[in-house]
Specification:
Radius of gyration: 18 Å
Number of helices: 8
Largest sheet: 2 strands, antiparallel
Strand order of the largest sheet: 1-2
Shape: elongated
Distance between the termini: 60 Å
Order of helices and strands: HHHHHHHEEH
């Protein structure tokens, strides 16, 4: 009671890729699947701990009043960052004008501390590269990942 139950096709989408159901919706859609609105799905994403993906759709659907971006960014910065999370933070922090509270340099430092290599290209664009799962699976947490020099296969 009081809890909205989403249809199976939407809940499968949320459990697999949380953002799949919202990706197909336009910015002004009222319903994701005929029953649940974007706000309902965003609420589920936040409860499931998908703060950074929620940040993306808070911007798309103009839901900043209901889902404060600063809280979503703060929650996204907890623990190790993935390449996807770091890239989304670097994109959406300036869009929400949160650069004073969350400076780009601090996000880049957190990304590096999480094992993400950051390369700056001409024009200020960034390329983020994470470690391979096979490389990191055998290492203890926090250990440096060995990097091969050169990009050509042997």
């Amino acid at each position: 009671p009081g809890r909205q139950r989403l249809p199976r096709r939407l809940s499968l989408s949320l459990s697999c890729r949380y953002d799949g159901a919202l990706k197909a919706c336009g910015a002004r859609c009222r319903s994701v699947d005929g029953e649940a609105g974007p706000g309902d799905v965003l609420r589920m994403m936040v409860r499931a701990g998908e703060h950074c993906v929620a940040l993306k759709y808070v911007h798309k659907f103009g839901q900043a009043a209901a889902f404060p971006p600063a809280q979503l960014v703060r929650a996204s910065l907890q623990g190790d960052l993935s390449v996807r999370t770091a890239a989304m933070l670097l994109k959406y922090v300036p869009l929400f004008e949160l650069s004073d509270a969350f400076p780009r340099e601090a996000i880049l430092e957190r990304a590096a501390a999480s094992g993400i290599l950051v390369h700056e290209l001409a024009g200020g664009k960034l390329v983020l590269k994470g470690r391979r799962r096979s490389d990191s699976a055998s290492l203890p947490p926090g250990a440096a990942v060995p990097v091969k020099v050169g990009s050509a296969p042997n």
